[in-house]
Amino acid sequence: MALEMTTDTESAMDTTMSAPPAVSAEGETLKMRGRDVKVFYGDKQALHGVDLDVRKNQVTALIGPSGCGKSTFLRCLNRMNDTIDICRVQGDILLDNDDVYDPRIDVVELRARVGMVFQKPNPFPKSIFENVAYGPRIHGLAQGKSDLEDIVASSLQRAGLFEEVKDRLDEPGTGLSGGQQQRLCIARAIAVSPEVILMDEPCSALDPIATAKVEELMDELRQNYTIVIVTHSMQQAARVSQRTAFFHLGNLVEEGLTNDIFTNPKDQRTQDYITGRFG
Amino acid sequence: MFWTYAALLLLVFVTANVYGRFRAMQVAGHQLSALHSRPSYHGGYLAILAALPAFVLLIAWAIVEPRLLDTMVISAKAESVAGLSKAELQAFLRDARAIAFGGIVAFSDAGKEQAAEVFSSLAQTSFILKTTLIIALVAGGLWYGNRTITPTMRARHFVERTVMALLILCSAVAIFTTIGIVLSLIFESLMFFRQIPILDFVFGTHWSPQSAFEGAGAEHGEANTEIFGAIPLLVGTMLITAIAIFVAAPVGLLSAIYLSDYASTPVRAIAKPVLEILAGIPTVVYGFFAALTVAPFIRGWGESIGLSVSSESALAAGLVMGIMIIPFVSSLSDDVINAVPQSLRDGSAGLGATKSETIRRVVLPAALPGIVSALILAISRAIGETMIVVMAAGLAANITANPLEAVTTVTVQIVTLLVGDQEFDSAKTLAAFALGLLLFCITLALNIFALRVVKKYREQYD
Ligand SMILES: Nc1ncnc2c1ncn2[C@@H]1O[C@H](COP(=O)(O)OP(=O)(O)OP(=O)(O)O)[C@@H](O)[C@H]1O
Ligand SMILES: [Mg+2]
């Protein structure tokens, strides 16, 4: 995947996108690849060289005890760590064949391709419509008003929220229930048609019914998107993900098919964690 | 005398406190767990019971006693004060007091000597009465408190309620002071409006109170009502305020955005306090900066491009006032911008928005109510500001929108009306109160409006 030396970001992406996609041993396409990722917060090292692949159109779950670096890794994937002054990232993270941390990469474009849903629902203090229209607006994705309305409606539809809010699109998004807010945030992320959606504990602020809805949604979204989710719930990881990665103290201990990880972990630490021995 | 008693009561308070604790431990058989409230609360309970009623009495006495004595002396010596004017009566009482309690006596006569005797005998009685009552209150409080200290006694609740009463009292002082000031403004203004019709004042376009007793109606000793029109002053005030906000709003807001979202921690740590120092510069310093530096500069600049600029101009005062209120805008806006949750910024960044897009589309709208109220606070500060305009804006009551001309403001005119020899019931002096009331109404309206705005848009996030 030799990058041609171009000064123009877009052409850098275009040329590399035409290269054949990386595939796993089983022949599955690798959407994102982390190679020897090390992250430092000031002097403190939070990740000690993580190699982790994210497969296309699958849900990858990151699990592990609190403070082990799950969020940190997730935030590397779309460079949300850039917003933290003291954070430094080493190693390679590839989206298709583009190095995410390449200085020629435009973060704006990257985040349009790799969207993020946060732990606490954080709708903007705007109307429901404006919340979803936000991304398409800043990226200029819509040609005119009716196009924008279509994007908003279809995003809400795919997030499974349309039926509930179609009569009150101009009411504030903050007036929705917690679960609705989180689905609104998912709709907001979908509206810029990303390729990858990162979710950091998306259900930890939700009640079981809202959680079930979001989980159901993830399973549908996986048809079109690649999803990485951080979760503290073993059951959730088991329910929604195809592959699971277990982190411990800034190291990736084990990664594999979700089924294997939960029924037949290779590492003692994984075993201890999923049986509730620590964490 | 007052202070001796106050000190004694403090001593009672401390002693009762110590004794209360001891007593509580005693009735509990030295077992902490047997007490409903901790011993320190029992100490507080006893101390409050013993010292507080006496202290309240002491203060009440200090307030009431002099007036009461005066009235009693006057009624006892009615024949020697008959026919005295108010001021003469004051002098009479002052001398009588001085004779009785020592002090400088202007001149004395038989009447005053007698009044002094009444004074000292009354004071004696008052002293004995006061002392007895205080001792009785302290003793009664101690006795009752001591008797009621039992393990189950809810001393904590009692102390908490007393503390609350104290807090209420303090806020009441602030509130009543405000009410008092407003009332006095209103009464003085009413006296003014008895001479000058209120409509002439509020809607009049001519202001020259120095000539109040010239021209039409002057020979009857009546004030000429046509010359107390406040409009020129309001126009001047608004012109200068507008210029100031024009300077302060963009500069303050943009620097607040820089400080809250762009500046690195060390830059912020230095820049924010430095900005706030601007607020600490005495306004008189701004005033001569405006009069001696900015005004001549503007004049020179205006002349060089062929404009006539008066040496005192609204522009000079407005610009400098704008600089003065920058910290109000920037500091308050900085706080509200910082209060916008980081999660909203993250959410926006996560969608691929740049920093400036995030600020423009998410942060500023969310912070808008706070920013508006910051601006309005700055405006009311600018409206009330005096020193700069006194020194730099001039005294000419012009109605003009041209910032290069001299204008005058409400505050400047209040100052000029009250400087120099005063008669406290002339229309000229009373006009100052009316202007003060006008100013107060304007800033009050602005503040209420600001509160409304904030309330209406609050709770959009969180
Ligand atoms: N902004 C930050 N500044 C400094 N240190 C940080 C920061 N964010 C995370 N860390 C540190 O990095 C390590 C990993 O944090 P991270 O948030 O990735 O953990 P996590 O696995 O997501 O934990 P949790 O399950 O509790 O969310 C922790 O030790 C944490 O203290
Ligand atoms: Mg986390």
Tell me what you see in this structure.
The complex is a heterodimer of chains A (279) and B (462). Chain A has 279 residues and is an alpha/beta fold. Chain A is built from 11 helices and 10 strands. A 6-stranded mixed beta sheet of chain A has the order 6-7-8-3-9-10, with helices on both faces. The N and C termini of chain A lie far apart (40 Å). The N terminus of chain A is likely disordered. In chain B, 76% of the residues lie in helices and 0% in strands. Chain B has 16 helices and no strands. Classes of the chains: A alpha/beta (279), B mainly alpha (462). Chains A and B meet through helix 3, strand 6, helix 4 and helix 7 of A and helix 12 and helix 13 of B. The complex binds adenosine-5'-triphosphate and magnesium ion (MG). The site of magnesium ion (MG) has 4 residues of chain A, from helix 2.
How do you describe this structure in short?
The complex is a heterodimer of chains A (279) and B (462). Chain A is an alpha/beta fold.
Helix and strand layout, with pairings?
The complex is a heterodimer of chains A (279) and B (462).
Chain A: H1 9-17, E1 30-41, E2 44-55, E3 59-63, H2 70-77, E4 87-95, E5 98-99, H3 107-113, E6 114-117, H4 128-139, H5 145-158, H6 162-165, H7 178-190, E7 196-200, H8 208-221, E8 226-230, H9 234-240, E9 243-248, E10 251-257, H10 258-263, H11 268-274
Parallel strand pairs in A: 3-8, 3-9, 6-7, 7-8
Antiparallel strand pairs in A: 1-2, 1-4, 4-5, 9-10
Chain B: H1 2-27, H2 39-76, H3 78-81, H4 86-101, H5 110-148, H6 155-195, H7 198-203, H8 231-262, H9 265-280, H10 283-304, H11 314-339, H12 342-350, H13 355-384, H14 387-392, H15 410-418, H16 427-457
Helix pairs in contact in B: 1-2, 1-5, 2-5, 2-6, 4-5, 6-16, 8-11, 8-13, 9-11, 10-11, 11-13, 12-13, 13-16, 15-16
